[in-house]
Amino acid sequence: MTVPSMTLFTWPEGLFPRRVTLYLKAKNIPPHILDAHLKIVDYKLDLSTGGIVSVHEPVPEKPAGSWPCMVVHAAEPGEQDVVIHESMSILEYLEDVFHDHGRALSGSDARARAHDSYYK
Ligand SMILES: N[C@@H](CCC(=O)N[C@@H](CS)C(=O)NCC(=O)O)C(=O)O
């Protein structure tokens, strides 16, 4: 499977975004491969308003909804971007597209899957 271009919108302190962070740490994809395909856009908690705000200027366009959120960018003309909102769905998608990179975390049997599921 060709690795597409993706953008991950994340709030590193948040519980569900942290699941993706821990997954990427455990997966250990070589940085030059990860950086070539996955752009990470961070948000932070603004204590004065209680809102989650972008740390980037100009503020990137994030699909509405919760964090984490990942956009898989269209690769061909006529294709549409795909937006993934659920953290577990993001992990499963990353495990598929980075099949040939980093450590396999999907587990080849029940025992391996039980061991590898610690990051979930
Ligand atoms: N089931 C979702 C839950 C995501 C979620 O609730 N994220 C929180 C941050 S930890 C959030 O975005 N809260 C603010 C909001 O929903 O606007 C997942 O697994 O990704």
TrEMBL record:
Superkingdom, natural source: Eukaryota
Residues of the GST N-terminal domain: 4-102
SUPFAM superfamilies: Thioredoxin-like
Annotated InterPro entries: Glutathione_S-Trfase_N (IPR004045), Thioredoxin-like_sf (IPR036249)
Coiled-coil stretches: none
Protein name (database record): GST N-terminal domain-containing protein
